[in-house]
């Protein structure tokens, strides 16, 4: 091959390599932003396999994207700023959480700056959690026979319930009430909650072991 031919070949390879870099960059950005969108609405920690399935990318790619996001939010990545939230691994999955530095401020905002009344659905869900804690969101939904995702988010944001543990068999988050609820009710402990059986037409003991009213 002539020198000119070699030059043309080398130029073609250079152009091809440049195009590969240019097309790879948007793909990387896309998966990062796609994961952000999912984390914004996720109520439960999301595992790598579930996330990979959702964005249609290999698990290894998703793992690398999560590492980039963690570094970005923590202010570790070049040019990044430490955010007021963090991407945290909990119970085998990943989810957004308020950074611990701002827990007090967020708690004060929720309890004093945003004091709107709870809806009937929120009050009913809070009652189930208070009497059955620790309890998973799925179990609450089963008892109330409705989806409680948004209601649980509301109760968490108000500081009335909190994540207390995870279910060993399923990894589901178990919720319980907080001291704030005791303060709002004016009682010292959950033992002072009234028995619900007198309020039920056919109940004698309230909730049975399956979570059903009896």
From TrEMBL:
Does Cytoplasm appear among the keywords? yes
Q: Name its GO BP terms in alphabetical order.
A: cell division; chromosome separation
Q: What keywords are annotated for this sequence in UniProt?
A: Cell cycle, Cell division, Chromosome partition, Cytoplasm
Fetch the Gene3D superfamilies from UniProt: Winged helix-like DNA-binding domain superfamily/Winged helix DNA-binding domain
Question: Any keyword ATP-binding?
Answer: no
Top-level taxonomic group? Bacteria
SUPFAM superfamilies tied to this protein: Winged helix' DNA-binding domain (SSF46785)
Write the protein's name. SMC-Scp complex subunit ScpB
What's the source species for this entry? Herbiconiux sp. A18JL235
Q: What is the lineage of its organism?
A: Bacteria, Bacillati, Actinomycetota, Actinomycetes, Micrococcales
């Amino acid at each position: 091959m002539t020198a000119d031919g070699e030059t043309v070949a080398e130029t073609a390879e250079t152009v091809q390599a440049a195009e590969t870099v240019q097309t790879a960059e948007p793909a990387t950005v896309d998966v990062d932003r796609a994961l952000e969108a999912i984390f914004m609405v996720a109520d439960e920690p999301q595992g790598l396999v579930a996330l990979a399935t959702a964005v249609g990318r290999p698990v290894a790619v998703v793992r690398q994207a999560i590492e980039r996001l963690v570094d970005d939010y923590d202010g570790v990545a070049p040019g990044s700023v430490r955010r007021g939230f963090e991407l945290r691994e909990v119970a085998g999955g990943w989810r957004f959480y308020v950074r611990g530095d701002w827990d007090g401020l967020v708690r004060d905002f929720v309890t004093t700056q945003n004091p709107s009344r709870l809806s009937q659905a929120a009050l009913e869900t809070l009652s189930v959690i208070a009497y059955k804690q620790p309890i998973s969101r799925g179990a609450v939904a089963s008892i109330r026979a409705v989806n409680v995702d948004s209601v649980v988010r509301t109760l968490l944001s108000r500081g009335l319930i909190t994540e207390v543990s995870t279910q060993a068999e399923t990894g589901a988050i178990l919720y319980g009430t907080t001291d704030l609820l005791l303060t709002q009710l004016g009682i010292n402990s959950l033992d002072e909650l009234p028995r619900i059986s007198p309020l039920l037409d056919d109940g004698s003991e309230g909730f049975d072991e399956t979570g059903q009213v009896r």
